[in-house]
Amino acid sequence: MNMDEEEVQVWDGASRGCSHTHSCNPPGPDDASHSHTCFHTHTHLIIPDQQENDHSDSSNKKRSCGNREAVRKYREKKKARTAYLEDEVKRLQTLNEHLHRKLQSQATVETEVIRLRTLLVEMQGKIDGELGGFSNQKHCFGSGLVFKEDGCSVATSNIICEAARVECEEG
């Protein structure tokens, strides 16, 4: 046998057809007989030669190698993204600590401003008390020492009206 005849035998053995007929389409509800024609093709698997196996194995290896490369690149990108996010977290934590310290120092400064204003009002009261003998100056008679929450308004009793006004710039 030559090569062509062997191939024909392989293909003949690999694919066979058969057909059969039976009745269909019953004319009424009592008649259950029916007929139709079916054609079936039966196929058999042909095991490929060793050369074809080697070719498919090498393509699988290439695909697997490409897959590994893609997974490696994905992992590298993921590591880089994670490192970037960790650095960003550290930077934001440092900034947060800095702002927290700045806020605490601002509260300390505001407390010092209130203390100094109180001291100023007391000194003005003493000065006005010593200068109180001058009759040509107008005096204000208030209810005593008053501070607003922001520490900008100051009023005292028995002091010169112009001296009792304390203005502050709001920032």
From TrEMBL:
One Gene Ontology BP term is: DNA-templated transcription
| Gene3D superfamilies assigned | 1.20.5.170
Main location class:
nucleus
Q: What's in the GO CC field?
A: nucleus
What compartments host this protein?
A: Nucleus
**GO-annotated molecular function:** DNA-binding transcription factor activity, RNA polymerase II-specific; RNA polymerase II cis-regulatory region sequence-specific DNA binding
Matching Pfam families, A to Z?
A: bZIP_2
- Region described as Disordered: spans on this chain: 1-77
Identify the residues that the record assigns to the BZIP domain, covering every copy: 57-123
- Designated name of the protein: BZIP domain-containing protein
Q: Which organism is it from?
A: Capsella rubella
